[in-house]
Structure formats: structure tokens, C-alpha cells
Amino acid sequence: MKKFLLLHMGFEMPTPEIMEGWNAWFASIADQTVQNIGFAGGRELTADGTTELGWDADALTGCSIIHAEDMDAAEKIASECPYITGIRVYEVREH
């Protein structure tokens, strides 16, 4: 079994319906989940300086680490997520 990182993209103020969808999705993947992480603001550092990161459609709001057989299986799990803007899927390489 491989590990995959799901990056949750986009923010909007959660309604009860949005929260219900997220809670149902997290429950549906509980046996495949290694860890869920939520973010609370952030900063981007570049050669040009530091920028505060906002909570909007471009925000990276959290991530989930899951077990899946392969990228296709991880993509299927991610596709069922009630994401706001999008979700990015990466295979995790162990070092």
C-alpha cells in the first residue's frame, strides 16, 4: 500500500451543508487515513520577501495523508471529496 498526500484547495465560509459533506467524506475514508491536517493561515517566503496568505479560492486549507494501492485509487478517493476549489494528489516518497 502506498501513501498519498491530498492537498485541499480553496476556502469559503462553511455552511452546515458543507460541514456535513466534509464530515461524511472524512468518515468514509477513515480506514484509509493516516492523518488529516487543517491549516490556520500562513505566509509565503520568496526571494522578493514574505507575503501573508489569504483565505480565499486560492488558499491551501489543509491536507490528508491516505493509503491507496496506486494513483488511480487515490484519485478516486479524492474525487469524492467535497472540495471547494480543487484537490491535488501527490504520491509520497519515503526518504
Mean pLDDT: 95
Which CATH first-tier class would you pick? Answer: Alpha Beta
User: Radius of gyration, Cα only, in angstroms?
Assistant: 14 Å
Distance between the termini: 16 Å
CATH architecture: 2-Layer Sandwich
Overview of this structure, please?
The protein is α+β, with helices and mostly antiparallel strands and 95 residues long. The protein has a single domain (2-38, 59-91), classed as Alpha-Beta Plaits. Helices cover 23% and strands 41% of the residues. The chain contains two helices and six strands, in the order βαββββαβ. A hairpin with a 2-residue loop joins strand 3 and strand 4 (49-53). The radius of gyration is 14 Å and the shape is globular. The relative contact order is 0.37.
Task: Give the key terms.
95 residues; alpha+beta; Alpha-Beta Plaits; 4-stranded antiparallel beta sheet; two-stranded antiparallel ribbon; 2 helices; 41% strand
Short characterization:
By secondary structure, the chain is of the alpha+beta class. It has helices at residues 16-28, 71-79, and strands spanning 2-9, 33-38, 42-46, 49-53, 60-68, 86-91.
